[in-house]
Specification:
single chain, Arc Repressor Mutant, subunit A, three-stranded antiparallel β-sheet
Protein backbone atom coordinates (compact mmCIF):
# COMPACT_ATOMS: atom_id res chain seq x y z
CA UNK A 1 0.00 0.00 0.00
CA UNK A 2 1.29 3.48 -0.87
CA UNK A 3 2.42 6.07 1.62
CA UNK A 4 -0.62 8.30 1.09
CA UNK A 5 -3.04 5.50 1.96
CA UNK A 6 -1.12 4.70 5.14
CA UNK A 7 -1.14 8.37 6.15
CA UNK A 8 -4.88 8.56 5.44
CA UNK A 9 -5.42 5.60 7.78
CA UNK A 10 -3.30 7.15 10.52
CA UNK A 11 -5.07 10.51 10.37
CA UNK A 12 -8.45 8.78 10.25
CA UNK A 13 -7.51 7.04 13.50
CA UNK A 14 -6.38 10.34 15.00
CA UNK A 15 -9.53 12.14 13.92
CA UNK A 16 -11.59 10.80 16.83
CA UNK A 17 -10.86 11.52 20.48
CA UNK A 18 -11.84 8.01 21.62
CA UNK A 19 -9.35 6.35 19.28
CA UNK A 20 -6.64 8.74 20.45
CA UNK A 21 -7.45 7.87 24.06
CA UNK A 22 -7.23 4.15 23.28
CA UNK A 23 -3.85 4.56 21.54
CA UNK A 24 -2.49 6.68 24.40
CA UNK A 25 -3.69 4.18 27.01
CA UNK A 26 -2.07 1.23 25.22
CA UNK A 27 1.10 3.22 24.54
CA UNK A 28 1.41 4.30 28.17
CA UNK A 29 1.01 0.76 29.52
CA UNK A 30 2.61 -1.30 26.74
CA UNK A 31 -0.37 -3.66 26.58
CA UNK A 32 -3.87 -3.63 28.04
CA UNK A 33 -6.83 -5.98 28.29
CA UNK A 34 -10.40 -5.20 27.33
CA UNK A 35 -11.20 -4.98 31.04
CA UNK A 36 -8.49 -2.34 31.45
CA UNK A 37 -10.09 -0.26 28.69
CA UNK A 38 -13.43 -0.20 30.48
CA UNK A 39 -11.84 2.48 32.67
CA UNK A 40 -12.36 4.79 29.66
CA UNK A 41 -16.04 4.68 30.68
CA UNK A 42 -17.41 3.95 27.22
CA UNK A 43 -20.38 1.89 26.19
CA UNK A 44 -19.28 -1.61 25.09
CA UNK A 45 -20.61 -1.06 21.58
CA UNK A 46 -18.73 2.23 21.26
CA UNK A 47 -15.49 0.71 22.53
CA UNK A 48 -15.75 -2.28 20.18
CA UNK A 49 -16.54 -0.01 17.24
CA UNK A 50 -13.38 2.06 17.70
CA UNK A 51 -11.25 -1.02 18.47
CA UNK A 52 -12.41 -2.55 15.19
CA UNK A 53 -11.23 0.54 13.32
CA UNK A 54 -7.83 0.37 15.01
CA UNK A 55 -7.35 -3.40 14.64
CA UNK A 56 -9.06 -4.30 11.34
CA UNK A 57 -7.87 -1.61 8.96
CA UNK A 58 -5.48 -2.42 6.12
CA UNK A 59 -2.65 -1.01 8.26
CA UNK A 60 -3.78 -1.64 11.85
CA UNK A 61 -2.46 0.48 14.68
CA UNK A 62 -3.49 -2.01 17.37
CA UNK A 63 -3.27 -5.80 17.46
CA UNK A 64 -4.74 -8.40 19.78
CA UNK A 65 -2.26 -10.93 21.15
CA UNK A 66 -2.84 -14.57 21.99
CA UNK A 67 -3.40 -13.78 25.66
CA UNK A 68 -6.28 -11.43 24.78
CA UNK A 69 -4.30 -8.24 25.35
CA UNK A 70 -4.08 -5.28 23.03
CA UNK A 71 -0.72 -3.83 21.96
CA UNK A 72 0.40 -1.23 19.46
CA UNK A 73 1.78 -2.31 16.10
CA UNK A 74 4.93 -0.67 14.74
CA UNK A 75 2.73 1.86 12.96
CA UNK A 76 0.75 2.25 16.18
CA UNK A 77 3.92 3.16 18.11
CA UNK A 78 4.73 5.78 15.48
CA UNK A 79 1.19 7.17 15.78
CA UNK A 80 1.46 7.20 19.58
CA UNK A 81 4.65 9.23 19.32
CA UNK A 82 2.91 11.58 16.89
CA UNK A 83 0.09 12.15 19.38
CA UNK A 84 2.51 12.94 22.20
CA UNK A 85 4.55 15.34 20.08
CA UNK A 86 1.38 17.00 18.83
CA UNK A 87 0.08 17.50 22.36
CA UNK A 88 3.40 19.01 23.41
CA UNK A 89 3.44 21.39 20.43
CA UNK A 90 -0.16 22.46 21.01
CA UNK A 91 0.57 23.04 24.69
CA UNK A 92 3.41 25.38 23.76
CA UNK A 93 1.41 27.37 21.21
CA UNK A 94 -2.15 27.54 22.58
CA UNK A 95 -1.65 29.81 25.60
CA UNK A 96 -1.52 33.56 25.95
CA UNK A 97 2.13 33.33 26.95
CA UNK A 98 3.10 31.55 23.75
CA UNK A 99 6.18 33.69 23.15
CA UNK A 100 7.60 32.99 26.61
CA UNK A 101 6.84 29.28 26.27
CA UNK A 102 8.44 29.25 22.83
CA UNK A 103 11.62 30.68 24.34
CA UNK A 104 11.48 28.06 27.08
CA UNK A 105 11.07 25.35 24.45
CA UNK A 106 14.22 26.54 22.69
CA UNK A 107 16.18 26.39 25.94
CA UNK A 108 14.68 22.99 26.75
CA UNK A 109 15.58 21.61 23.33
CA UNK A 110 19.12 22.97 23.61
CA UNK A 111 19.72 21.55 27.09
CA UNK A 112 18.13 18.22 26.16
CA UNK A 113 20.08 18.00 22.89
CA UNK A 114 16.73 17.23 21.24
CA UNK A 115 17.74 18.08 17.64
CA UNK A 116 20.85 15.90 17.88
CA UNK A 117 18.95 13.04 19.52
CA UNK A 118 16.16 13.27 16.94
CA UNK A 119 18.65 13.21 14.06
CA UNK A 120 20.63 10.23 15.38
CA UNK A 121 17.56 8.19 16.29
CA UNK A 122 16.14 8.71 12.80
CA UNK A 123 19.12 6.82 11.32
CA UNK A 124 21.15 5.30 14.20
CA UNK A 125 23.76 3.27 12.33
CA UNK A 126 24.78 6.23 10.18
CA UNK A 127 26.51 7.81 13.17
CA UNK A 128 28.30 4.79 14.65
CA UNK A 129 31.78 6.13 13.75
CA UNK A 130 31.12 9.54 15.28
CA UNK A 131 29.78 7.89 18.45
CA UNK A 132 32.85 5.65 18.79
CA UNK A 133 35.21 8.62 18.26
CA UNK A 134 33.29 10.67 20.84
CA UNK A 135 33.54 7.87 23.41
CA UNK A 136 37.26 7.52 22.71
CA UNK A 137 37.76 11.26 23.29
CA UNK A 138 35.64 11.04 26.43
CA UNK A 139 37.88 8.32 27.85
CA UNK A 140 41.05 10.11 26.74
CA UNK A 141 40.08 13.38 28.44
CA UNK A 142 39.13 11.46 31.59
CA UNK A 143 42.61 9.93 31.76
CA UNK A 144 44.22 13.35 31.35
CA UNK A 145 42.42 14.78 34.37
CA UNK A 146 42.67 11.65 36.56
CA UNK A 147 39.01 10.64 36.33
CA UNK A 148 37.37 7.33 35.47
CA UNK A 149 33.90 7.24 33.85
CA UNK A 150 31.34 5.22 35.81
CA UNK A 151 27.91 5.25 34.15
CA UNK A 152 26.91 8.93 34.15
CA UNK A 153 29.52 9.99 36.72
CA UNK A 154 33.22 9.73 37.59
CA UNK A 155 35.53 8.50 40.29
CA UNK A 156 38.85 10.22 40.94
CA UNK A 157 42.13 8.40 40.51
CA UNK A 158 45.06 7.85 38.18
CA UNK A 159 44.30 5.21 35.56
CA UNK A 160 45.95 4.04 32.37
CA UNK A 161 44.62 5.49 29.11
CA UNK A 162 43.34 2.10 27.99
CA UNK A 163 41.42 1.62 31.23
CA UNK A 164 39.81 5.05 30.92
CA UNK A 165 38.72 4.46 27.32
CA UNK A 166 37.41 0.99 28.22
CA UNK A 167 35.49 2.55 31.12
CA UNK A 168 33.91 5.10 28.74
CA UNK A 169 32.68 2.33 26.43
CA UNK A 170 31.54 0.27 29.42
CA UNK A 171 29.60 3.24 30.79
CA UNK A 172 27.81 3.50 27.43
CA UNK A 173 26.83 -0.16 27.17
CA UNK A 174 25.97 -0.73 30.84
CA UNK A 175 23.81 2.41 30.94
CA UNK A 176 21.99 1.30 27.79
CA UNK A 177 21.41 -2.24 29.08
CA UNK A 178 20.19 -0.97 32.44
CA UNK A 179 17.69 1.34 30.73
CA UNK A 180 16.45 -1.49 28.51
CA UNK A 181 16.08 -3.74 31.54
CA UNK A 182 14.15 -1.14 33.54
CA UNK A 183 11.97 -0.26 30.54
CA UNK A 184 10.39 -3.72 30.56
CA UNK A 185 8.56 -3.48 33.92
CA UNK A 186 8.22 0.33 34.06
CA UNK A 187 7.41 1.29 30.48
CA UNK A 188 6.21 -2.06 29.18
CA UNK A 189 8.72 -1.78 26.32
CA UNK A 190 10.53 -4.99 25.44
CA UNK A 191 11.90 -4.13 22.03
CA UNK A 192 15.58 -3.35 21.56
CA UNK A 193 16.05 0.30 20.54
CA UNK A 194 18.94 1.05 18.19
CA UNK A 195 18.15 4.74 18.47
CA UNK A 196 18.57 4.63 22.24
CA UNK A 197 21.81 2.67 21.92
CA UNK A 198 23.34 5.35 19.75
CA UNK A 199 22.06 8.33 21.75
CA UNK A 200 23.00 7.25 25.28
CA UNK A 201 26.52 8.70 24.71
CA UNK A 202 24.97 12.14 24.13
CA UNK A 203 24.21 12.17 27.86
CA UNK A 204 27.99 12.12 28.47
CA UNK A 205 28.42 15.58 26.92
CA UNK A 206 28.08 17.33 30.33
CA UNK A 207 30.84 15.05 31.62
CA UNK A 208 33.08 16.11 28.75
CA UNK A 209 32.39 19.74 29.69
CA UNK A 210 33.48 18.96 33.27
CA UNK A 211 36.63 17.26 31.95
CA UNK A 212 37.48 20.30 29.86
CA UNK A 213 36.93 22.60 32.85
CA UNK A 214 39.12 20.33 34.95
CA UNK A 215 41.78 20.32 32.24
CA UNK A 216 41.92 24.08 31.64
CA UNK A 217 41.15 25.18 35.23
CA UNK A 218 43.08 22.96 37.66
CA UNK A 219 41.12 21.88 40.72
CA UNK A 220 43.57 23.69 43.03
CA UNK A 221 42.63 27.03 41.49
CA UNK A 222 38.86 26.92 41.15
CA UNK A 223 37.15 23.54 41.16
CA UNK A 224 37.25 22.92 44.90
CA UNK A 225 34.72 22.96 47.71
CA UNK A 226 31.29 24.39 46.92
CA UNK A 227 32.22 25.43 43.39
CA UNK A 228 33.13 21.83 42.55
CA UNK A 229 29.94 20.52 44.19
CA UNK A 230 27.79 22.96 42.19
CA UNK A 231 29.51 22.10 38.89
CA UNK A 232 29.15 18.36 39.44
CA UNK A 233 25.53 18.66 40.56
CA UNK A 234 24.65 20.68 37.44
CA UNK A 235 26.47 18.15 35.25
CA UNK A 236 24.55 15.26 36.83
CA UNK A 237 21.21 17.05 36.35
CA UNK A 238 22.08 17.93 32.74
CA UNK A 239 23.17 14.37 31.93
CA UNK A 240 20.00 12.95 33.47
CA UNK A 241 17.83 15.34 31.48
CA UNK A 242 19.53 14.49 28.18
CA UNK A 243 19.16 10.79 28.93
CA UNK A 244 15.48 11.31 29.76
CA UNK A 245 14.90 13.00 26.39
CA UNK A 246 16.67 10.14 24.61
CA UNK A 247 14.60 7.50 26.43
CA UNK A 248 11.33 9.36 25.85
CA UNK A 249 11.94 9.62 22.10
CA UNK A 250 13.30 6.10 21.68
CA UNK A 251 10.50 4.47 23.70
CA UNK A 252 7.78 6.92 22.55
CA UNK A 253 6.68 7.77 26.07
CA UNK A 254 6.19 11.02 27.93
CA UNK A 255 9.16 12.69 29.59
CA UNK A 256 7.59 12.10 32.99
CA UNK A 257 7.54 8.32 32.45
CA UNK A 258 11.02 8.27 30.93
CA UNK A 259 12.26 10.22 33.95
CA UNK A 260 11.28 7.35 36.24
CA UNK A 261 13.71 5.10 34.38
CA UNK A 262 16.54 7.61 34.19
CA UNK A 263 16.23 8.59 37.86
CA UNK A 264 16.52 4.92 38.79
CA UNK A 265 19.62 4.68 36.60
CA UNK A 266 21.06 7.77 38.30
CA UNK A 267 20.40 6.41 41.78
CA UNK A 268 21.87 3.04 40.83
CA UNK A 269 24.94 4.93 39.64
CA UNK A 270 25.20 6.80 42.95
CA UNK A 271 24.91 3.55 44.88
CA UNK A 272 27.67 1.99 42.76
CA UNK A 273 29.88 5.06 43.25
CA UNK A 274 29.46 4.80 47.00
CA UNK A 275 30.58 1.17 46.88
CA UNK A 276 33.55 1.97 44.62
CA UNK A 277 34.64 4.84 46.86
CA UNK A 278 34.62 2.54 49.86
CA UNK A 279 36.67 -0.05 47.92
CA UNK A 280 39.23 2.47 46.71
CA UNK A 281 39.50 4.27 50.04
CA UNK A 282 40.11 1.03 51.88
Amino acid sequence: MDKESIMDGVFNALSHNIRRRIIIMIGNHGSVSYTDMTSLELEPGTLYFHLDILTKSDNPLVERTGNKRYTLTELGHATYGLILEGEDQIQWTSTERADARWSSAIVSNALGMSPIIRRIQADPWRFWLEILLFLGCYGYLASRVDLLPVFLFFIEGTFDLGISILAAFSAWLVTFLLIELLSIPILGKREFSRGLLMTVPISFIPNVVVELLWFFIPATEFLVGWSLTIVLTLAIAWSTYILTVAVARAKTVRLSRAAIVTLLVTNTNLFLLAILNVVFLT
